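haha ok so turns out i had the wrong file open the whole time. this is the CORRECT one, sorry everyone. sequence first:
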Amino acid sequence: MIVANPIYDIVFKYLMEDERIARTILSALLKENIVEVRMRPHEYDNIDHDRLSIFRIDFAATVRDAHGENHLILVELQKTWAPTETLRFRQYLGKQYADARNTYSPDGDDVPSRHRRVYGIPMVTIYLLGHRLGDIEEPVIYVRRQTLDYYDRPVTKGLPNPFVDSLTHDCIIVQIPRLRPVSRQHKAGNRLDQVLSIFDQSNVDSSVKSQQTLTIDEEIYDDDAEMQRIVTRLVAAAADSEMRHNMNVEDEYFSLIDEQDSELMAQRKLLAEQGAQLKEQGAQLKEQGAQLKERDAQLSTSIRLLHQSGMSIEDIAKSLNLSVERIGQLL
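then structure:
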C-alpha cells in the first residue's frame, strides 16, 4: 500500500490533527493512558516554510494515572530534518516556560492575586529527529528527571511537587533513521515500535525519485484498529493533490537548504585553507624576522669592533657598502 510519508511537516500535521491518532501516538511515546488530547490553537510553526527548519505542535493532554485520577500535562512536540537546531529547540523551550498560558493556580479566585500561588503545568518534550545523534544506537531514548539528596539517594516523600514540576521536565528523543523495521517476519517488539513503524524511512517508495511516499504492508496492522486508522489517513494524504503540492514545496525548501549548506561548507573549507596559508606565511615571516635580527646583531658586533680599533664611521660604511646613517643605527 502506498501512503504519504509522515516525516513531511504537512503530512505529520494532518496526521496529528486527528485526535484519536494523536492519542495513539502520544500514548505510545509517553507510555501513559492518555484519555484526551487537544492541539493548542495556532501552536504549530513552519507550515509556510520560512527561515526555520523546525516544525512544532503543542498539545494539552489529559493523563489518567493508576489510581484513576486525571492530570493535565503539556506535550511539546518538535520535529526537524536538520542536525544543527539545538539552539532553536532551547529558545522555543524558554518561550514555553515564560508563557503565562502554561500556568495554573491551586488557589481560588477569592485569594488576592498578590498572594495567589502560580505554578507551571507539567511539561514533556518530544523531539522527532530526521538524523542520528552520534553513536547513540537506541532509536528512542527517555531522559528522566531524578530527585536526589546530597548523597545521591532518591527523594520520594512529598513528590510530585508543583514547584519541582514547574521548573523541570522529562524529554523523549526519537532518531527516525534508527527505527527498527517491522514486517510479517519481524514483529514489533513493543507498542512504541509498532506505532513508530509508520515513520520507517526504509519503506520509501523506490519506484519514484522523491521521498514523498512509503510502501507498507498493511497486513501487519490487520489486528490493530488504531494503526489501521493511521494507515487510512496516510493513504488519504497520499491521494490529496494539495497535500502533494505542499510536499513538493517542502522538497524545494529543503533542497535549497542543502544547496546553502553545501555552499557554506565550501566557503568554510576555503576559509580554513586560507587561514592555514596565512598561518604558514606568518611562521615564515617570523622566521625571516629572527634571521634578520640575528644578522643585524652580528653586524653590530663587527661595526663596534672596527670602530673601537680606530676606524672612522665613513671608512666602515665604505668597507661594508652601507650608508653612514645605517652604520650609526647599528652602532
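The chain has a mean pLDDT of 86.
again sry for the mixup
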